[in-house]
Amino acid sequence: MRTRTISAVLFCAAAVGTVACQPTEKPEPSGVASPSVSAGAPSSAPDKDDRIPEKKQVPDFAGMGLQSAQDKAQEQGFFSLQSHDALGRDRMQAFDRNWKVCSQSVAGGETVSTDTRLDFGTVKLEETCPAKDEKPPAAEGDKAPDFTGKSVKAARAALDSGTSITVNDASAEDRLVLVESNWQVCSQTPAAGAALNGQPVEFTAVEFGESCP
Fold first, then answer.
1. Rounded to 5 degrees, what are φ and ψ at 203?
2. Which uninterrupted H or E stretch holds 206?
3. Largest Cα–Cα distance in the chain?
4. What is the four-CA torsion angle of 119, 86, 66, 108, rounded to 10 degrees?
5. DSSP strand E in 51-194: where?
6. Is residue 100 within 8 Å of residue 123, measured between CB atoms?
7. Of the N and C termini of the chain, which has fewer Cβ atoms inside 10 Å?
């Protein structure tokens, strides 16, 4: 009898172990999407770069604040926009609301493709627009331009990037020339028209609004 009892117990233990080893499927928690449902599917809305160019009339932006002009241009479908300093000082339009439009590369009323680049000539709000858009100086061939009255920043940009340049305060105050777009050239070495062959260039300058000595 004892032998039969032990055998029965061992058989049940083996049967229980077999059931315990069988894998069971866990139910999916509520709210979890089924793998068959795609997540993050791309929107059917066209991207800005996928817009088809069309012919439109360019508005007249003269006199508008730069930010307002840019917003209006985009409303009309023109997204290739840039701006520059109309006084030729090569200043950056860091805060568009502080600048106003004096000129535009495509005249108001002209009909062009909406992928045409529009370039705005601008000045700061408190400044007067020039009669003609002033371009920064540019070296013609190997000759030094006349930098007199131009900003030090624009003069530097006109020279080869490897040129050694020294800038000194033309007044007796010996000030540091830190923001070069705020300083105008009074004198230069070498002189305007002289050959540029890699020699160092020297400028004296005063702040805009001041007179050269």
1. -125, 145
2. strand 201-207
3. 128
4. -50
5. 55-57, 81-85, 99-104, 111-113, 118-124, 165-169, 183-189
6. yes
7. N
Among residues 124, 139, 166, the one where a domain terminates is 124
The arithmetic mean of pLDDT across residues 181-187, rounded, is 98
Contact 128, 162 (CB under 8 A): no
pLDDT digit string, tens, across residues 91-118: 999 999 999 999 999 999 999 999 999 9
Q: Are 175 and 186 in contact (CB under 8 A)?
A: no
Domain total for the chain?
A: 2
Residue 162 has, within 13 A of its CA and on its CB side, a CA count of 4
The CA distance from 25 to 126, in Å, is 75
As a whole number of angstroms, the distance between CA 186 and CA 179 comes to: 16
203 neighbors 166 (Cβ within 8 angstroms): yes
φ, ψ dihedrals at 37, nearest 5° = -95, 125
Taking CA atoms, 194 is separated from 158, 191, 201, in Å, by: 15, 6, 11
- Nearest Cα neighbor of 203 from 184, 187, 179 is 187
Token pair 């705020």 in the structure block, residue: 182
Query: Domain limits at 170?
Result: 152-207
CB atoms within 10 A of CB 100: 24
pLDDT digits over 4-31, tens only? 444 444 343 444 444 444 444 444 444 4
Cα-flanking dihedrals φ and ψ of residue 49, to 5°?
A: -75, -10
